[in-house]
Amino acid sequence: MTSIGTGYDLANSIFSPDGRNFQVEYAVKAVENGGTSVGIRAKDGVVLAVEKVVTSKLLKPGANKRIATVDRHLGVVYSGMVPDGHHFVDRSRDEARSWRDTFKTPISTSDLASRMGGYLQAYTLYQSVRPFGITAIVGGFDSELEALVDGEVGSGPSVGAGGKVEGKHGGPGLYMIEPSGMYWGYYGAATGKGRQAAKAELEKLNLAEGKLDLQQAVKEAARIIYVAQQDNKDKEFELEMSWISSADGPTKGRHMEVPKDILAEAERLAKKAISEDDDEEEENKDEDKMEE
Amino acid sequence: MDHRPQAWGRPRDDVYGAYDASYMNTNLPNQHTQSPIVTGTSVVAMKFKDGVVMAADNLASYGSLARFTDVKRLRTFADTSVIGFGGDVSDMQYLDRHLTELGIDEAYQSDVGGHNLNARNLHKYLSKLLYHRRSKFDPLWNHLLVAGMDEDDKPFLAAADLLGTTFTSPSLSTGFGSMLAQPIMRKYVPDEASVENITKEKAVEVIKECMKVLFYRDARSMDKYSLAIVTKDGVELSENKLENQSWAFADRIKGYGTQTV
Amino acid sequence: MFRNNYDNDSVTFSPQGRIFQVEYAGEAVKQGSVVVGLTSKTHAVLVAIKRNAEELSSYQKKLFAIDEHVGLAIAGLTSDARVLSNFMKQQCLSQRLTYDRAMPLEKLAALIGDKAQLNTQHYGKRPYGVGLLVTGVDETGPHLFEFQPSGLTQEMLACAIGARSQMARTYLEKNLDKFADCGRDELVRHGLRALKETLVQDRELTVENTSIGVAGLKEPGKKALEVFKVHDGADVKDWLNSVADDAEAGGETTEGEGMQVDE
């Protein structure tokens, strides 16, 4: 790497002559070594999924959750340095709580992404800290219902300051935040070791059309984690998934683990799709016939 | 003319005489809440063999004015416990928000398999909070009843008040209820042993009887009330109205209002 | 001469995205004598080898009770361990005081993990130079957590850390399926056998150098606890005798990664 030996990469917040902050770029390297994380924004909810590499047989199966609940309606998954991920989750929870304290209403997915983007960016500004070695995917479902301000009396003004905004509001949200603090909204997001393959699969889903529903998204997310894991076949892994639907969907607006039976079915289909894929490759046919 | 900022907005000394600075004396003792403002009246609750029944009416009074008539004073926690609030309604709302956040915090963990706070944990926490606030001389002006199941799935019922005092009994009530409802409930559950003989239906009946007596005798009460039944299967929360009211006796009451004879 | 420029502090990433200071702190764990932890459906057990600085000095304690239901094993810098153990004791007490409940182990592990992570992200701080095994029994049964200086805490079925612990881990992996249904004493014996695997030639487990900590449920499915207790000296004699003659375990498996030799 050209940066090595120039001295511009030895401390955080230092610009190199061509305007790069190498320490942030190195933090991204830490992310690229981590297990793959995927998020899908479907038309009626959000799915988060992560490939948990089993580093030791002695680890308790099914424990050591990598997807965290930040507020009732918000979930976070990340790739990279796990302790940094915990720090990120802790801070996210603090932000969600302080938002509730101030505004008496849950924080929206976009506002949480903005707050956390700002937080990560602050860790690129000083020599006294290092950037986060994670890329986080934040998924949430902002309520579409008329939310009462706790303790409100009467209906308030209908127009003007304090008046209600007409039309549809709320809905699913998905954001990905990088070590630099940069974040974008996504229909489908992927990070970690298998991100290239995962992104290729996500693009095939045409998520922007808004046709994929939550139940399909669960299956696709599972399949994509399996596809992204293909280059790393020898490593054992666990698939962990969570989802968030609207208030009238299966999770009632809450972020929760995908139930065991649905997860098992999604994994079964994923394994089947993978093996079919392998067969097709062997027969040298056109790839990717299955949309399901 | 005095143009110094500290004189801004004050009467001119040359016209009105020197300002009496003792009005701005800050050496007075600090004062926090001295009395509740908008209040809820009694909460009543009693145990039965499989759980606890609790009730509180929907009135928030502003002094003797029946100010708000649809205030829910029972709130559930994690679908396993019920808390009934007597006393100041804004402090109740503060506690409600506080409990919401506590519930969110606890749910971070419990995905993995049930570290939920049970009613005993909740009561301990709330009593510590109330005691902490009274020790700051800034009390939360409430009297709470906490009902649910304990760690052995036995019915749990306990009270905590604005001083941080706690106590527990097979039947409990706050406010006027401690005079009017408690004797009724004690007839049925004088001690822990007798709880075993009380069915859910019987407990609901007794609590409804208490709400009736309280409505007739307590001038800060109303005839709409929330009723919660908590068992190990969860919480059933319902809204009720006192039916078949009879005010015929009111004719014979003397010594009130405009009546002079 | 080659010099690693990226290993001076814990706020500098190497070009590969590694933080050497944190990795070096992980090496400090391997300087400590070995501790082993394992769990069954009803019990959580810690066993450890204690060291003495010289023949006539006393042995450094390796196992500590944090609360009635939580025990701790340490490998690495003892003084760092004390900071964390005091913190854990305080947190456990605070849960008893404010909620009248036993601290959930998962929460406890997360707390020390988060505390340790902060030391890896701020200049002027250093990572803790100690590895921990946090074990005990809570509402959801027995648990075992491994804590690393990076702040990574992971729940394990069984684990070993410290000098030559690879041999113990190999034993644990080999016998992992048996642990779940083990009774209390059988679980301790598995722990001791794992410990034996790490011994260098001519060394053996004695009542002086062996510590055993046990917590568990009195009966499966019931809530009554056998509180965490550390057994030393004469208390461990019977357990030691019960594994004294199974020579088939044998310390001859000379795999391992040629780690630091004891003392």
Structure description:
- The complex is a heterotrimer of chains A (292), B (261) and C (263).
- Chain A contains six helices and ten strands; from the N terminus they run H-E-E-E-E-H-H-E-E-E-E-H-H-E-E-H.
- By secondary structure, chain A is an alpha+beta fold.
- The longest helix of chain A has 23 residues, at 260-282.
- The radius of gyration of chain A is 21 Å and the shape is globular.
- Mean pLDDT of chain A is 90; it is low at 285-292.
- Chain B is of the alpha+beta class.
- In chain B, strand 12 and strand 13 form a beta hairpin.
- Chain B starts with 12 loop residues before the first helix and ends in a 20-residue tail after the last strand.
- Chain C has one domain: Glutamine Phosphoribosylpyrophosphate, subunit 1, domain 1, CATH 3.60.20.10.
- Chain C has helices at residues 20-31, 78-99, 105-118, 165-179, 184-197, 237-244; strands spanning 35-39, 43-49, 63-67, 70-76, 130-138, 141-147, 153-155, 158-161, 210-217, 225-231.
- In chain C, the strands form two sheets. Chain C has a five-stranded antiparallel β-sheet, with helices on one face. Chain C has a five-stranded antiparallel β-sheet with strand order 3-4-5-6-7.
- Chains in contact: A-B, A-C, B-C.
- The interface between A and B is medium-sized, with 17 and 13 residues.
- Chain B: InterPro entries: Ntn_hydrolases_N (IPR029055), Proteasome_beta4 (IPR016295), Proteasome_bsu_CS (IPR016050), Proteasome_sua/b (IPR001353), Proteasome_suB-type (IPR023333).
- Chain B: Belongs to the peptidase T1B family.
- Chain B: Keywords: Cytoplasm, Nucleus, Proteasome.
